[in-house]
Structure to design on (274 residues):
C-alpha cells in the first residue's frame, strides 16, 4: 500500500512517488509471469527428456490426367542470309529476301503481330587456305577475309493451320536459307492444362481413399503436393535449304499433318493418416 503526506513531500513529490510505485508493481507482475512461463517450459523439457518426437504417419499417392486436343496453331522459323564484301551489300541481300518472305506471309493472311524477328546478326567471314604438296594438304595458318555475312531469323505463327504446308512451300521458293522448328500447338492451352491437372488430382484422391480404406486408416491433412507432366509435344521438320526446296521455281507444298497433342499432368500428394 502506498501512502504519501502532501504536506511533508509536496504534491509533485507525491505524484513522483506514486508513479514509481506503479512502475514497480507492473515490473513485479511481468517478472512473475516470465518466471512462471520459464518454469513451465523447463518442466515440459524435463518431462520429455529421452523421448523422441514421433513424426506423423503418412501415405503418398500419385495421379495422372490426360487431355487430347487437336492443334489449331502452327509455328515455324526461317532464316535469310546475305553475303558480300561490304556490310551494306550483305544487308541489302538479306533484306530483299526477308521483305519478299514477309510480303508472301501477309498475302497468306498472316497478321503482322504473328511475324517476329528473333535474331539479326552481322559477322565477318574468313577462310583458311589449304596448300597441297606431295605429302598432302596442310593449312598455311593464314586467315583470308572473304566479306560479311548477315543473318536474320524470323518466327511465324500460322493460325490457319490448313495453310501450313503452302506457307512452307512458298517460303522455300522465295529463297529462305532454312526452315526449322515446325510445331503444332493449341491456342488455349492453359485451359487444357487446368483440366488435365484436375483429372490428375481426382485420380490421386481416389487412389488415396482406396488405400486408406484397405489399410483401415483415415486421411488427414495434405502435407506435400507436386506436379509434373508433358504439355507440349514437338513436331520437327528437317532443315530445308533454298536449293533443296527447288530454288527459284515454285516448291511443292509439303504434307504436314498436325496430328493430336496429348496434354498430361502428373501429381503426387502426401497425406497424414490417423
Amino acid at each position: 500500500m502506498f501512502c504519501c503526506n502532501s504536506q511533508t513531500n509536496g504534491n509533485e513529490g507525491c505524484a513522483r512517488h506514486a508513479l514509481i510505485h506503479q512502475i514497480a508493481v507492473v515490473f513485479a507482475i511481468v517478472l512473475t509471469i516470465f518466471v512462471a512461463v520459464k518454469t513451465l517450459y523447463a518442466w515440459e523439457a524435463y518431462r520429455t527428456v529421452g523421448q523422441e518426437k514421433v513424426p506423423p504417419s503418412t501415405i503418398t499417392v500419385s495421379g495422372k490426367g490426360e487431355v487430347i486436343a487437336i492443334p489449331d496453331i502452327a509455328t515455324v522459323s526461317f532464316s535469310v542470309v546475305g553475303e558480300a564484301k561490304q556490310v551494306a551489300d550483305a544487308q541489302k541481300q538479306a533484306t530483299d529476301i526477308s521483305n519478299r518472305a514477309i510480303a508472301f506471309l501477309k498475302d497468306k493472311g498472316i497478321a503482322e503481330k504473328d511475324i517476329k524477328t528473333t535474331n539479326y546478326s552481322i559477322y565477318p567471314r574468313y577462310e583458311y587456305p589449304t596448300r597441297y604438296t606431295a605429302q598432302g594438304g596442310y593449312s598455311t595458318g593464314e586467315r583470308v577475309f572473304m566479306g560479311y555475312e548477315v543473318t536474320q531469323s524470323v518466327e511465324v505463327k500460322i493460325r490457319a493451320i490448313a495453310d501450313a504446308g503452302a506457307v512452307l512451300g512458298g517460303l522455300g521458293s522465295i529463297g529462305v536459307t532454312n526452315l526449322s522448328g515446325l510445331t503444332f500447338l493449341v491456342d488455349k492451352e492453359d485451359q487444357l492444362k487446368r483440366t488435365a491437372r484436375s483429372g490428375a488430382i481426382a485420380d490421386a484422391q481416389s487412389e488415396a481413399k482406396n488405400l486408406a480404406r484397405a489399410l483401415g486408416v483415415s486421411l488427414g491433412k495434405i502435407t506435400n503436393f507436386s506436379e509434373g507432366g508433358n504439355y507440349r509435344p514437338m513436331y520437327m521438320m528437317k532443315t530445308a535449304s533454298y536449293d533443296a526446296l527447288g530454288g527459284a521455281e515454285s516448291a511443292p507444298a509439303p504434307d504436314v499433318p498436325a496430328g493430336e497433342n496429348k496434354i498430361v499432368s502428373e501429381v503426387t500428394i502426401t497425406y497424414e493418416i490417423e
Remarks:
- The longest helix spans residues 6-47.
